[in-house]
Inverse folding.
């Protein structure tokens, strides 16, 4: 039996590129390059993992790949396939599966004013054995593992809910989310597992650069439609009680990708919470929000809301304001909401929207450490931000000087050492029976 030769951890990987037809292939004799903001690095095997199941490779239209030229010992932008002159090629990135944080962005040079579609873009490469992703696992829970979401089970669940709740518009809405948009949270409701979505709000009090449900910028297209009606308290309570009564350690969550900010629908959410809690004290009721309306949030805590996940791209006010573009609130209101949640004894997560080179910058890391020291944060949910990396870096540099990148893996592990009680993950936990611990070591 021939023993397979092991691959050295520091072995450079090969770049992945695509032709105009979207066919992806590697470039032998060149090195794969990744980016931390403006910084370029040669990507090696020990900085990557096998591409996680469910991840997707994507061509970056209109951009040019940056590779490492070993012959001349330098980074190089390619305008055509070096092995097939006159064949135009494009960079390739990976959209990592839920629970995996992108450690680097793809290295590319912009050659069009059009921003990339609203997806997250991680660095990918080819190595011995297959596709590699520069990513770190922060949550191994299989809540959104596509292998556990059989289509026939989802369809059966939908048919069951149509018979049981024929007039519930909210259930009809998430049917569309499950079947048309492939929303894992909607699928899980119909499969009666984990966390169920409660989209409610037509409006929003922010104008996020990377909003995935409503865009006024003609250079961007939302990847899903925002909910077009406001469900009644009864419709919300029906869906919630159905899920809570059938799922162990269940979670139901306001604030989904197909809606605005749920606090703008306070007038239906508060009575819905009272109906739910009048019928059961089981289950975790969570809200994903920008937390800009503190008084409303406080009232919802009193009505039965168990936890809040506050979306933040940065804990530095200039960077936060530049991305979220709040319309009726300020950064200080977000901080006040977090403090209010802590005083009420509620579970607080930060939905930390990250892009390498900005999130892992020295300035942001120092600000985050100080923020956690002074405010009640139980968990950080590491979310890869759905936005064009180059465009984001440029906008954030104009907002506040970032300093040198420290590395995504470095800051996560440093936070774990400094705050051993802080949970690192991706999914909203069932806080009433929460024994969850961070997976990073």
């Amino acid at each position: 039996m021939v023993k397979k030769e092991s691959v050295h951890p520091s072995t450079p990987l090969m770049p992945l590129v695509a032709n105009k037809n979207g066919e992806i292939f590697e470039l032998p004799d060149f090195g794969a390059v990744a980016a931390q903001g403006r910084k370029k690095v040669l990507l090696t095997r020990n900085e990557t993992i096998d591409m996680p199941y469910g991840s997707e490779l994507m061509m970056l239209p209109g951009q040019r790949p940056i590779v490492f030229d070993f012959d001349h010992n330098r980074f190089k932008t390619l305008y055509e396939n070096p092995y097939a002159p006159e064949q135009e090629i494009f960079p390739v990135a990976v959209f990592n599966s839920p629970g995996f944080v992108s450690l680097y962005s793809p290295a590319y040079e912009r050659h069009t004013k059009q921003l990339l579609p609203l997806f997250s873009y991680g660095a990918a490469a080819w190595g011995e054995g297959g596709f590699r992703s520069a990513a770190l696992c922060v949550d191994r829970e299989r809540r959104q593992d596509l292998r556990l979401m059989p289509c026939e089970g989802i369809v059966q669940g939908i048919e069951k809910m149509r018979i049981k709740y024929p007039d519930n518009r909210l259930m009809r809405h998430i049917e569309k989310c499950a079947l048309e948009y492939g929303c894992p949270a909607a699928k899980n409701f119909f499969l009666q597992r984990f966390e169920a979505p409660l989209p409610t709000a037509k409006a929003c009090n922010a104008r996020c650069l990377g909003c995935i449900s409503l865009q006024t910028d003609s250079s961007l297209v939302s990847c899903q439609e925002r909910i077009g009606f406001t469900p009644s308290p009864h419709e919300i309570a029906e869906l919630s009680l159905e899920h809570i009564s059938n799922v162990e350690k269940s979670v139901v969550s306001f604030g989904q990708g197909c809606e605005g900010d749920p606090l703008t629908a306070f007038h239906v959410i508060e009575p819905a919470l009272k109906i739910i809690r009048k019928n059961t004290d089981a289950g975790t009721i969570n809200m994903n929000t920008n937390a800009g309306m503190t008084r409303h949030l406080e009232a919802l805590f009193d009505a039965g809301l168990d936890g809040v996940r506050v979306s933040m791209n940065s804990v530095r006010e200039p960077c936060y304001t530049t991305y979220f573009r709040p319309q009726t609130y300020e950064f200080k209101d977000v901080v006040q909401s977090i403090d209010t949640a802590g005083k009420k004894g509620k579970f607080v997560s930060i939905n930390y929207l990250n892009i390498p080179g900005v999130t892992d910058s020295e300035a942001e890391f120092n600000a985050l450490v100080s923020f956690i020291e002074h405010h009640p944060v139980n968990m950080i949910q590491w979310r890869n931000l759905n936005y064009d990396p180059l465009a984001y870096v440029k906008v954030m540099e104009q907002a506040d000087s970032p300093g040198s990148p420290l590395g995504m893996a470095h800051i996560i592990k440093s936070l774990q050492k400094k705050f051993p009680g802080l949970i690192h993950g991706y999914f909203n936990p069932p806080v009433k029976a929460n024994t969850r611990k961070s997976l990073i070591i």
About this structure: Residues 1-5, 434-441 have pLDDT under 50 and may be disordered. DSSP finds eleven helices and 22 strands in the chain. The first helix runs from residue 151 to 164.
